[in-house]
Amino acid sequence: MSDYVIEASGLRKEFRTRRGEVRVAVHDLDLAVPTGGVHGFLGPNGSGKTTTIRMLLGLARPTRGAMRLFGTPVPAGLAQVIDRVGAVVESPKFSPNLTGRQNLDLLARSRGIDRASVAAAIATVNLAGRERDRYKSYSLGMKQRLAIAATLLKSPQLLILDEPTNGLDPAGIREIRRTIEELGQAGVTVLLSSHILAEVQQVCDSATIIGNGRMLASGKVDDLLGTSLAHRVRVADPAAALRVLTDDGFTVSHLDGVLRVESERPAREITAALGRHGIWLDELTPLRADLETVFLGLTEGDRLGAEDGGH
Q: pTM for the complete prediction?
């Protein structure tokens, strides 16, 4: 049995415009999503995330490349594994005048799924108590959670969510985040596609970062973030500390009485440099990079190349 739920290699998707020009949406992408937990599929809008998902689900045909779900080649073997996959890729079609529960009951009956699965799905997405309200009265976040509940009726082992927090207010985002975390902890593999890197960082165990249809980095989130090379420093006299640390070879910036010290040197050398001049620390805190910082660093070469006319 493969250690990966999703595998893609050399995946490419070309489109031909009305003018006959060939545009490439996905450039020879490699993707490996490990079994279990939440895997972020991260990149800005237009980077090829949705196109990749559509190809995995058989909704779009790749120009070339190989794909596997649960070790089975797709799209050729999609019928063998599709019952193990749930996906929310486009806005689902629910009847606005029916309640959330009635919509799920209708869907369950059409698939031969028992009512107990409906109740379990409602509980999983935290809609209990609101399932008998009409769908048209639901907030956008509740509608999104009902869509996830619909995919959970068949107890999928893989759940694919494409930008599930788009347009949600902070409360809706928190509810979706909690649902995703609980599903990952329950053993469901979740592929979470999003352009909101800071938000995704809170729920993902591993991630693949793409830009312009290409994979830029992939691995465990902690490995992608790496170790801290910066520290926040608070002292009684930040101007004096700035002079001391700069003279000692540190790169230091100063904002609102707080120093940011960037260096590969260990933190104890910051303490020692200040202590030699009688400056004592009120705070010395390592600053971790976030996924947004990592992403900007990975794409910097592409941006500079574009500005210089490179390729």
A: 0.78
